[in-house]
């Protein structure tokens, strides 16, 4: 029996890593990625992939646009948080600059704090939870404690 590639139209992945990088970005940008698989780790992957293709400014714009659009398509449009999204791309960029990883799996294995202790990484910059900062949901608020490099 010949091996065939699974058709995502009939085979839905159980984890975001079951989808190639190209397919992941394409599905995210078009809104076709399964919402239940868009986890924190998938957010980090999206930022990492865009940072591999674009400079930080463009990666931030694309990450924000893609997640905001995805939120509009699959939610009530209220979950997107601009400051937290920008901060997450900047945190990923910080770790990416020091990384030798060539794949996302290598990257998160080198930097497990991005998955396991992300909130504490953000709090080092902000001091308080950015979710509680007035206007931070719709406007980027720079960190008050430690600027991103």
Can you give the mean pLDDT?
92
Distance between the termini: 54 Å
Let me know the number of strands: 0
Radius of gyration: 16 Å
Note the overall shape: globular
Q: Which sequence of SSEs, written as H and E, runs from N to C? A: HHHHHHH
- Oligomeric nature of the chains: single chain
Total of helices: 7
The helix fraction, in percent, is: 40-55%
Main beta-sheet annotation: none
How many domains make up the coordinates? 1
Unreliable sequence segments: none
Descriptive tags:
mainly alpha, 7 helices, 149 residues
Walk me through what this model shows:
This protein is 53% helix and 0% strand. The protein is mainly alpha-helical and 149 residues long. The protein has one domain. Helix 2 runs antiparallel to helix 3 (56-74) and helix 3 (56-74) packs across helix 4 (82-97). The longest helix has 19 residues, at 56-74. The chain is globular and about 45 Å long.
Would you spell out the secondary-structure blueprint of this structure?
Blueprint: H1 21-30, H2 40-53, H3 56-74, H4 82-97, H5 104-110, H6 113-116, H7 118-126
Helix pairs in contact: 2-3, 2-4, 3-4
Summarize the structure.
The protein is mainly alpha-helical and 149 residues long.
